[in-house]
Specification:
Protein name: HdeD family acid-resistance protein
Pfam family, one: DUF308
Number of helices: 7
Distance between the termini: 39 Å
Structural class: mainly alpha
Shape: extended
Keywords: Membrane, Transmembrane, Transmembrane helix
InterPro entries: Acid_resist_chaperone_HdeD, DUF308_memb
């Protein structure tokens, strides 16, 4: 058996390194809060930016799968990878050409995913009634189910802002978390 390439450093040293960089965490957090606030003010632009980001990632994934297909040693594998890559690429092109329609489709999928996730979480919580905290799992599932239903009831009109709102809230939460982390590191 060989010796490890590097020895683990004590957590005090890692904490000291992080503490030295507390200002970067606060700065990153402040930047995320600003970007999140901008997204919150213009949820349509944030929705379209989200769609373009997803589309570019899908296009990249499709291209990689198509290249992978040509690297296959057998025709059966080639005909599995190639259609998958083509479908990803076509989905990306569709989203790039009509981001509003793509946001409509993704918003409906989001509503369905939230509703399904809520139902599953409620069932899981009810199945664990003999454990402490099961009610919180059911409550969380009920809120998620309710969010899915509310989004579905407002569909397709809300498709112009729902994804942007989710992005804005996520950016704001990440930003405040980074600020809190940076300030906590400074105090230690």
């Amino acid at each position: 058996m060989s010796a490890p390439l590097s020895t683990p450093r004590p957590s005090r040293l890692r904490l000291a390194e992080l503490r030295d960089k507390w200002g970067w965490f606060v700065g990153l957090g402040a930047a995320l809060v600003v970007v999140g606030a901008i997204a919150l003010v213009n949820t349509l632009a944030a929705t379209i930016a989200s769609i373009y980001t997803i589309a570019f990632l899908m296009l990249l994934a499709g291209a990689i799968q198509i290249v992978q297909a040509f690297g296959m040693k057998s025709w059966s594998n080639f005909f599995l990878w190639l259609p998958a890559g083509v479908v990803y690429a076509l989905g990306a092109v569709f989203a790039l050409l009509d981001p509003i329609l793509a946001s409509t489709v993704l918003t409906l999928l989001l509503a369905a995913a939230l509703a399904a996730g809520g139902v599953i979480r409620i069932a899981a919580g009810l199945g664990e009634r003999d454990h402490q905290g099961w009610g919180w799992v059911v409550f969380s599932g009920a809120l998620t189910l309710l969010a899915g239903i509310v989004i579905a009831l407002g569909w397709p009109v809300n498709s112009l802002w729902v994804l942007g709102l989710f992005l804005a809230v996520d950016l704001l939460m990440q930003g405040w978390a980074m600020i809190a982390l940076g300030l906590a590191l400074r105090r230690r």
